[in-house]
Amino acid sequence: MCPRTSHQFEDIRKKKRHLILEAALIVFTKKGFHSASIANIASEAGISKGLIYNYFKSKEDILKVTLVGGFEHIFKHYRFDPENFTIEQFGKLIELTFDLMEDDLSYWKLYFSILMQTDVMEIIQEDLMNILIPILDSFASCLAKMGFKKPQDEARFFGALLDGLSLNYIIDPEHFPKEYCINRLKSIYNLP
Hints:
By secondary structure, the chain is mainly α. The protein is about 75% helix and about 0% strand. It has two domains: about 1-55, Arc Repressor Mutant, subunit A (Orthogonal Bundle), CATH 1.10.10; about 60-190, Tetracycline Repressor, domain 2. It contains nine helices and no strands.
């Protein structure tokens, strides 16, 4: 049998890391952050507890990577360019928000449960705000171009509307009037 190449080792590391993050998402969603343990995550992943520490420093580290990494992935998926955000992208963002929630309800359930736990939110707040503030600024810039008198306030209002709709969607995706809400949001902002 031939020894593994560095590329093969790197591939194995990526797969294990992904396995741990997926298991953590399941455990955090089921048990909540405080009740979850590294042992629970290891058990869910089908690996030893010690192996997790080869990839992550702590449960807090896993939480940060899961949530902040999820947001980074989402905005890469949007191909979000804060410098050149347009009205057309604004409308697409609304549609994609619901599509991405539909694709990964577990992630969003975890995200909203973390938002309600202030002590847990403190763990990720700085990293999350580093992602969200430029996005809100981009929304505000676009809203200013659209003629809103208080674009920063309107950007926060829009974010709050989207959060509220998102929370209602993840609670009951089967009965949520997704298309109606998308069209209603677009009509509020005169989006294509």
